[in-house]
Amino acid sequence: MNYRMQRKLYDKFLFNYLAKDAGNAAEIMEAGGGYVVPGIVSDKFSTPDKAALKVQELKTVTEMVSVGLGGGGDAANWKRVLDISLASNPGHLNQPFETASYTKGFLDGSDVPNQLVNALVKPTGQVGRIQLTSGQVMNAEEFLDLAAALGIESIKIMPVNGDEHIDELIHLTRLAGAKGIRGIEPAGGINASNIRNLVEGVKNIDIEFFMPHIFGATIDKQTGKTIPTKVREILDELED
Known about the structure:
alpha/beta
């Protein structure tokens, strides 16, 4: 069964999980009620071409695949993600803020336009402040003004360490929605024990989508597959 990205829990929430193969993608999409964007990370493949083949495999069961940087959000992998995307038309890709606008423009002029490109930043521990991958700390509102002017559609913030940075995340989401940014994507340490706090914190904020990236807590270390029952456990935490 194919699920469109527009299928969102409470018309807002999507969940990004890694998928080992097409069968695993189908399993976790079913377990996640269809509110799932399966993905890969670029550093798990020896070449961009091999990663692109995996994206194409996953796209036999879903319309959108997310291509992650890998390495804990390693900005050095930005070009690898771009190359994978050019060869596979995934639909969603991760970039550091510094290359997000360039990547979006390059793809829009290529054979695979209309990709959703996020821009990665880091929390600082201070509400109203974010840190770029370059290390520069910025006022969150000024940063979002710049992001919107550059045509950036979604902001990824990592590592949030579960709900440790929830006040920063709520503030960033509220500002982003007011400035026309389409989505916020938190990552790092998110699991069934803290997902409800994150979702409840932003549930009433007017933003198109909020997509937690949930990796380590749901992956079978032996097989590398995301465990469907773990995905279902997270959804059960959120459904009334």
